[in-house]
């Protein structure tokens, strides 16, 4: 709709890749039986004392460094007080005043152009328990309670559902590159609260915002934003007022609905957590973490295009998942430098097809970078031909091993010897008199058919280039 | 209502039900406490960091190593009611 500006901000909760909870040694193994990974700390027993997980702090700081945040030298924790049965001690340990990371940004690209989405801050907190709702009662499983979450709060810099998607995808890719989270949406590793408002163009002040809470699929966020924006625009163009409220996305009905909200529900009475001492980060420590950061996806795309002579498009596809990029680079480095594009072609067509057919990731497959490098090299040096290479790849993908061993064991090496091939060419020409006559009558395509027949006769092992040359010579020669 | 402290509001946040007598009593007591704390406002504390802890300790961490959790039957033994292996609650509605 024209005449209105859309403003979206996201608060994204990311489960950190730790073995244990934020403040106790209970395991975070996914899919455990209800209430098996619990102890007095995460059950909220009076008197139980939290002790901070060092790794959770490191992962949050690494995330901040990847996103260009400023890292707070001193950071403290606070209690956020609320009454709800997902948090039995009646407060969540979070960071209110001095979060670990401040500022930073995520670069996004959409059809509307490229922009930087600013990050307000990243803070560290604990997750709540899982409540299951039944017909006549509810049940609580505390396994999730106390899981370390970092909350990445964006500025309201997003202007469309497309930009929100681009932001989440870029953020997820950076976090995966950083290795700080599995970002597994099915397991709820990445959940977002969405703030959205509309206002007439020319109005300085932001419109009244509505929050849509706790969405865990990108598709859901997109659909919820589309619905909510349409709802708000319909309301304001009718002259109605948007009420500041929290809404829930109902994927079945495809609409957002207001959530019940008590008056004063948001007066959390934050106060400093007396059971946790401040975190002070030494400059040397932060710099050591900074020095060990992986490349950002965008930087890697540029470097790979340059280093391996591949198009930007290839580099973007390969760099999409870090492990694909790692695999490609290992394979390309094991080949002659001029073969970068060939390795990329093989990865992007044949290997990616096998990945999507099998549903495996590259590290789950048996294919190794050296096997792909060898395959490409065998092809390039014309030891094997294209059809043979295509036949070998699924086997290497499934069962592993090296192509050179398979070629030697099965006699798959291609026949390039002109004398050996001449007899086959002779045979095909004498058996296909009509095609020979067609060719000489001007149907040049007949030559291709004859080359194909020779390839077939050789059971695919003939060198197609040599066969092509021999066929052309014979057709041009005496009849 | 006193402008020092709104006891009814604090009680509501803390989910406490007060009788009128209790309300009057806490109003008096808490007003005294708040006024006492207000004395600090008579001092110039600009540039002084608030003290959150009695000791100047920082960076108390544990390593990310799994420790045994509690026995589930013992844990659920403290539940007023249970549903299989869950703590059972009255039916609740999601709050914003």
Verbal overview:
With 479 residues, chain A is of the alpha+beta class. Chain A folds into three domains: 284 residues, no CATH class; 116 residues, no CATH class; 61 residues, Arc Repressor Mutant, subunit A. Helices cover 40% and strands 20% of the residues of chain A. Chain A has 15 helices and 18 strands. Chain A is elongated. The relative contact order of chain A is 0.09. Chain B has a domain of 35 residues. The two termini of chain B are 29 Å apart. In chain B, a hairpin with a 2-residue loop joins β2 and β3. Helices cover 33% and strands 9% of the residues of chain B. Chain B is flat, with a radius of gyration of 22 Å. With 96 residues, chain B is α+β, with helices and mostly antiparallel strands. Chains A and B meet through β2, α1, β10, β11 and β15 of A and α1, β1, α3 and β3 of B. β2 of chain A pairs parallel with β1 of chain B.
Query: Main β-sheet of chain B, in a few words?
Result: 2 strands, antiparallel
Radius of gyration of chain A: 31 Å
Shape estimate of chain B: flat
Question: What is the straight-line distance between the termini of chain A?
Answer: 74 Å
Radius of gyration of chain B, in Å, reads 22 Å
Helical percent range of chain A? 40-55%
């Amino acid at each position: 709709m024209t005449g209105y500006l859309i403003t979206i901000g996201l608060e994204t909760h990311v489960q950190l890749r730790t073995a244990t909870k934020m403040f106790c040694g209970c395991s975070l193994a996914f899919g455990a039986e209800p209430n098996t990974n619990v102890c007095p700390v995460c059950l909220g027993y009076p008197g139980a004392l939290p002790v901070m997980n060092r790794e959770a702090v490191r992962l949050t700081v690494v995330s901040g460094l990847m996103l260009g945040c400023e890292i707070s030298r001193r950071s403290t924790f606070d209690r956020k007080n609320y009454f709800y049965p997902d948090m039995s001690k009646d407060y969540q340990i979070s960071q209110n005043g001095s979060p670990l990371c401040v500022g930073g940004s995520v670069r996004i690209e959409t059809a509307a152009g490229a922009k930087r989405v600013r990050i307000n801050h990243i803070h560290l907190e604990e997750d709540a328990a899982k409540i299951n709702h039944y017909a006549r009662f509810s049940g609580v499983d505390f396994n999730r309670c106390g899981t370390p979450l970092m909350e990445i709060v964006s500025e309201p810099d997003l202007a469309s559902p497309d930009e929100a998607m681009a932001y989440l995808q870029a953020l997820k890719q950076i976090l995966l590159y950083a290795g700080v989270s599995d970002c597994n949406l099915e397991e709820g590793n990445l959940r977002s609260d969405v703030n959205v408002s509309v206002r007439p163009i020319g109005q300085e002040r932001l419109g009244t915002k509505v929050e849509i809470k706790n969405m865990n699929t990108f598709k859901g966020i997109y659909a919820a934003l589309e619905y909510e924006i349409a709802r708000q625009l319909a309301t304001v163009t009718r002259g109605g007022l948007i009420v500041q409220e929290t809404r829930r996305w109902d994927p079945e009905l495809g609409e957002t609905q207001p959530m019940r909200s008590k008056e004063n529900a948001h007066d959390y009475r934050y106060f400093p957590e007396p059971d946790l001492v401040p975190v002070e980060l030494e400059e040397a420590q932060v710099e050591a973490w900074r020095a060990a950061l992986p490349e950002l996806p965008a930087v890697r795309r540029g470097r790979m295009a340059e280093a391996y002579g591949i198009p930007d498009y290839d580099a973007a596809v390969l760099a999409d998942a870090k492990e694909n990029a790692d695999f490609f680079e290992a394979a390309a480095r094991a080949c002659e430098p001029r073969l970068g594009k060939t390795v990329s072609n093989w990865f992007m067509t044949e290997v990616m097809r096998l990945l999507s057919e099998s549903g495996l990731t590259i590290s789950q497959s048996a294919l190794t970078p050296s096997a792909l490098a060898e395959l490409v090299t065998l092809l390039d040096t014309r030891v094997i031909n294209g059809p043979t290479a295509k036949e070998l790849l699924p086997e290497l993908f499934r069962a592993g091993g090296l192509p050179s061993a398979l070629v030697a064991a099965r006699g798959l090496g291609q026949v390039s010897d002109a004398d050996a091939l001449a007899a086959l060419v002779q045979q095909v020409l004498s058996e296909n008199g009509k095609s020979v006559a067609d060719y000489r009558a001007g149907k040049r395509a007949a030559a291709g058919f004859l080359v194909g027949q020779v390839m077939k006769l050789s059971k695919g092992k003939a060198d197609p280039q040599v066969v092509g040359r021999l066929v052309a010579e014979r057709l041009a020669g005496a009849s | 209502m006193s402008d020092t402290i709104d006891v009814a509001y604090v009680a509501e946040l803390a989910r406490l039900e007060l009788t009128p007598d209790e309300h009057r009593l806490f109003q008096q007591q808490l007003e005294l406490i708040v006024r006492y704390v207000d004395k600090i406002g008579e001092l110039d504390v600009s540039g002084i960091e608030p003290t959150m802890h009695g000791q100047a300790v920082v960076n108390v961490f544990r390593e990310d190593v799994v420790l045994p959790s509690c026995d589930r039957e013992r844990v659920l033994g403290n539940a007023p009611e249970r549903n299989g292996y869950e703590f059972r609650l009255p039916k609740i509605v999601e709050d914003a």
